[in-house]
Amino acid sequence: MNFARIARLGHRWLALLVGWQLALWTLSGLYMVVVDLDFIHGDTLVRNVAPPVRLDVPLARLSAIREGRDDIRAIRLRTLPDRGQPVYELVRADGAELLDARTGRPMPVFDATRIRALAAAHYAGSGPVATVTLLTRDADVPDEIRGRRAPVWRVDFDDWTATSLYLDPVTGRLVTRRHRFWRWFDFLWSLHIMDYVAREDVNNPLLRVAAPLAFVTAAFGGWLAFHSFGFLQRRRRAARGDT
Amino acid sequence: MKLLRLRQLHRWVALVVGLQVLVWTASGLMFAWLDQGLVAGEALAEAPVPTALPAAADLLEPARLPLAADTPVVRALELREVDGRWVYRVETDADVRLLSASDGAPVAIDAAAARRLAASHYRGQGRLRTVQLHATETLETRELGAAWEAAFDDATGTRLYFSNADGSLVAVRTDAWRLKDLFWMLHTMDYRGRDDFNNPLVMVAGTAAAWVGLTGVWLLARVMRPRREADGRATR
Questions:
Q1: Do B220 and A59 count as a contact with CB atoms less than 8 A apart?
Q2: Residues near A117 by beta carbon (within 8 Å), at least 6 away in sequence
Q3: How many beta carbons lie within 10 A of that of residue B66, not counting itself?
Q4: For residue B30, which phi and psi values (nearest 5 degrees)?
Q5: What is the pTM of this model?
Q6: ipTM score
Q7: Which of A129-157 are b and which e, b meaning 16 or more Cβ less than 10 Å from the residue's Cβ?
């Protein structure tokens, strides 16, 4: 059995084994390549991500804010996009705290109405708000924002890309945005790296087996292509002195 | 015969994109076997535990910061500790800068500061060899802006990068990362920036490869089936 035959059989049988995965790799890869990554990230879906910081209005003195708080690690001056309201966001040892920057007093807890207004101020699309939900338990946090802990607000929009904006209940910040094409990307990514649940481990055993098999399949295929186009036969024939 | 023609076309296109398919599978193989944690160098650097704002710290009110009237729009303003000093980090439409929290004077990240940052962030076993400023992007910093490189003499070839604008740790690069990045370039076919996988070359190659893959599966189904019914060898 010459090497061409080994390559042919190897290419064929291995392709039978990893063929579907090769097809999935190419199709999922093609989607990721063709659809613009900034669009996938939802850059076109949001606005007012960093509203201008208000230094033009009288603000509460820092000394008043620091009073009674000895664990401040950072102080951020921000502007809430819906009302142009200046707020101090304190980073403290046990999490964030939000203060009205004009009065220095703690902000009231965001309710669904205010979250809806904040989400609308961030949303650059054209659909109406469909639902506003506070996810209170980690078990309720969907896989599409994996890595985040509850509580988090979810605002769904009724538009053609099924946009969801996620907001932080304490700071009111836009945590992230998701939409149909991101979800497809994420699903195809899971097929691409063969990590179907967590969708982040590129060192998983399945991929570690499938990838070398695919490489060998492709290598056999490459050799076959080379061989079947006759480059070698011609050279061999020439070497033997055949015509 | 139709099948033969499809097979020929499959072969011709496969010949053209075959090399790239080989490169894709080879680089994919590398990603699968190169340890993700080593590539990210996650055990090699960590921001130091933040300290609390001292009660005695004398702070300038944000409104009194020396920001000229013609300063572009301020997008973010943060009071925080950088390299043991309390500073305001001011992000405008034009740039990012640090101002002393006590008097508003500009705070620059110089070589000495870069050395201190390197020491406070590094978690590996090596020693700091050199620090140097890269004013423009390098292969290891790309869109991260002007950055201080801190090179260590450890076995993993660690280099930490700190933003020249605000001193934050912006990148951890190791030999594993460099190897992965080389294969990433081959995988994305972005031979200059390496990270843009929406480039026309990879779109064309991807489309061709998808076609080869699909026709391959189709041919496989066709070739494997008639074998049992008739003598498949006759077709070869």
A1: no
A2: A82, A83
A3: 11
A4: -65, -45
A5: 0.89
A6: 0.88
A7: beebebbeeeeebeebbeebeeebbbbbb
Q: What CA–CA distance (Å, rounded) separates B160 from A199?
A: 28
pLDDT-wise least confident of A160-164, A184-188, A209-213, A215-219: A215-219
**Averaged over B178-195, what is the pLDDT?**
95
Pick from B97, B107, B22, B40: nearest CA to B67: B97
Q: What is the pLDDT of residues B108-158, one digit of tens each?
A: 999 999 999 999 999 999 999 999 999 999 999 999 999 999 999 999 999
Quote the distance between the C-alpha of residue B137 and its chain's center.
13
Task: Report which of B166, B120, B128 is spatially closest to residue B147, judged by C-alpha positions.
Answer: B166
pLDDT in tens, A77-130: 999 999 999 999 999 999 999 999 999 999 999 999 999 999 999 999 999 999
Closest partner residue to A33 (CB to CB) among B21, B206, B223 is B206
- Rounded distance between C-alpha atoms, residue A205 and residue A225, angstroms: 30
The alpha carbon torsion through A205, A207, A209, A210 (nearest 10 deg) reads 160
**What is the CA A67 to chain-centroid distance, rounded?**
40
Contact B206 A30 (CB under 8 A): yes
* pLDDT, position B232: 44
d(CA A139, CA A142): 8
Hey, is the C-beta of B200 within 8 angstroms of any chain A C-beta?
A: no
Q: At A128, is the secondary structure helix, strand, or coil?
A: coil
Q: What are phi and psi of B144, to 5 degrees?
A: -80, -5
